[in-house]
Write a structure and sequence with these properties.
The relative contact order is 0.09. It contains no helices and 29 strands. By secondary structure, it is an all-beta fold. The strands form 8 sheets. A 4-stranded antiparallel β-sheet has the order 3-4-5-6, with no helix packed on it. It has a domain of 113 residues: Lipocalin (Beta Barrel).
Length: 313
């Protein structure tokens, strides 16, 4: 977990810090795999554009990899490989496939602008490059298919489940066949008539339902959390929530019975907890979070004044 500064491990029952990694200032949300913690250094700090692997028990560094440029994305780990993107406005972007044991490069893939992290499922890496979706072989990096659409939201990381790839769009959300790249459905988000309306963060998928945070800042700020059927795209429910223009977008987190939406604490210091079945509000926490994770029935929020833990259920 990180408090927005340095990554550290916390005892869940007591809140005591078990270890702290001092080189990790300004990290992205970490990934966990087989006793390892994998995270990237974000921009605006020393050592930016690096990937670190730590021992989850001790915090000892296992390896690091220099991306050769900045990154803002979260690493994705699947089948013994770490997938991470490098992004710089002035340079071409790259996707790196790293061996999780050593940090060595297995393959890399170049593109224009990778603004979000990839999704991995069924031996395929799904990557968004500006307005083009790529499906790449996870072992070799070869291209299986591509799909282009000018309405794709470039910051919405693709999400995949049960053979359906879901991407956010301006004024809508879309399902695509993960095997062929053929469009399956598209549903309007209907938040307001603004030209900026859309799904600009990563949707979440659970038990055949897609959950998405929809925002618009024109003609006035508006936001909602919406649920869609994964197979048909039919909207199941929509709940309006407060939205302020600025960096307060968030990826929804889904638990057994709730949809959780943490907000940027510097703009709107709250976390929404909605019922999964109908979208009704269960409660609003008075703490937001730069990032969040659910562990053993506890919601952990990374906040400017530290890590906050809440029991959920």
């Amino acid at each position: 977990m990180s408090d927005g500064n340095f990554p550290h491990a916390i005892d869940l029952s007591s809140g005591e810090v078990q270890w702290r990694f001092e080189r990790g200032r300004g990290i992205t949300r970490p990934a966990f795999i087989d006793g390892r913690v994998i995270f990237c250094k974000s921009t605006n700090y020393d050592d930016e554009g690096r990937v670190f692997a730590l021992d989850a028990g001790s915090g000892d560094q296992l390896w690091e990899f220099d991306l050769g440029g900045p990154t803002e994305t979260v690493p994705h780990v699947a089948d013994g490989t770490v997938f991470v993107t490098r992004f710089d406005w002035s340079e071409p972007s790259k996707l790196f496939a790293l061996d999780v044991e050593t940090g060595d490069v297995s393959w890399e893939f170049g593109g224009k602008k990778f603004l979000c992290e990839p999704a991995v499922a069924g031996g395929t890496v799904f990557l968004l490059d500006t307005r083009t979706l790529y499906a790449l072989d996870a072992k070799e990096g070869e291209t299986h298919w591509t799909w282009q659409n000018e309405q794709i939201a470039t910051t919405s990381s693709p999400t995949v489940a049960d053979g359906v790839l879901v991407v956010g769009e301006r004024k809508g959300i879309r399902g695509i066949d993960a095997c062929t790249g053929d469009p399956l459905w598209r549903t309007d988000t209907d938040t307001n008539s603004g030209s900026t309306e859309g799904v600009y963060t990563s949707p979440a998928i659970a038990d055949g339902t897609v959950y998405a945070f929809v925002t618009s800042d024109q003609p006035e700020p508006a936001g909602s959390v919406q649920a869609f059927d994964l197979v048909t795209g039919e909207r199941r429910w929509k709940t309006e929530i407060e939205f302020h223009v600025g960096r307060n977008l968030a990826d929804p987190i889904v638990t057994d019975d709730a949809v959780i939406l943490p907000r940027d604490p510097t703009i709107l210091d709250t976390t929404h907890v909605l019922d999964r079945e109908d979208g009704s509000s269960r409660r609003d926490l008075d703490v937001g979070g730069y990032s969040a994770v659910v562990v053993d029935g506890h919601l952990l929020l990374s906040h400017p004044d530290g890590v906050h833990a809440f029991e959920i259920g």
